[in-house]
Structures are given as C-alpha cells and as structure tokens.
C-alpha cells in the first residue's frame, strides 16, 4: 500500500508509520502536490 503524509518535515511520523507498517510504502509530499500524488496513493493523511 502507498501511504502519503501530506506535509513535509514530520520525518518522525513517517519513521513511526514505517515501523508499524513494514510492508507498506510511507511517503510524504507538500500540500500543493496532493492532487498529483492522490492519483497514485492508496491512503492520504492530511
């Protein structure tokens, strides 16, 4: 599963999520990139 945290600068959150969901891809993006990333994402975390 591809999960996007829709804010940059919260590396600790992506690291926690990756530890809890090791089989999933945890990524981050800027708020203005959400529309582009949403086409490829399974989950968006605002």
Give an account of the 3D structure.
This protein is of the alpha/beta class and 46 residues long. It has one domain. The protein is built from two helices and three strands; from the N terminus they run βαβαβ. The chain has helices at residues 11-20, 34-38, and strands at 2-5, 25-28, 43-45. Strands 2-1-3 form a three-stranded parallel beta sheet. The chain is flat, with a radius of gyration of 10 Å. The two termini are 17 Å apart.
List the helices and strands and how they pair.
Elements: E1 2-5, H1 11-20, E2 25-28, H2 34-38, E3 43-45
Parallel strand pairs: 1-2, 1-3
The unreliable regions are: none
Please trace the helix and strand order, writing H or E for each element.
EHEHE
Number of strands: 3
Q: Number of DSSP helices? A: 2
Strand order of the largest sheet: 2-1-3
**Helix percent band:** 25-40%
Structural class: alpha/beta
Radius of gyration: 10 Å
Mean pLDDT: 95
The number of distinct structural domains comes to: 1
Form type: flat
Distance between the termini: 17 Å
Strand content: 15-25%
Tell me about the biggest sheet?
3 strands, parallel
């Amino acid at each position: 599963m591809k999960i996007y945290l829709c804010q940059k600068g919260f590396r600790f959150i992506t690291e926690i999520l990756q530890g809890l969901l090791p089989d999933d891809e945890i990524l981050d993006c800027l708020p203005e990139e959400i529309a582009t990333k949403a086409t490829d994402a399974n989950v968006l975390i605002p």
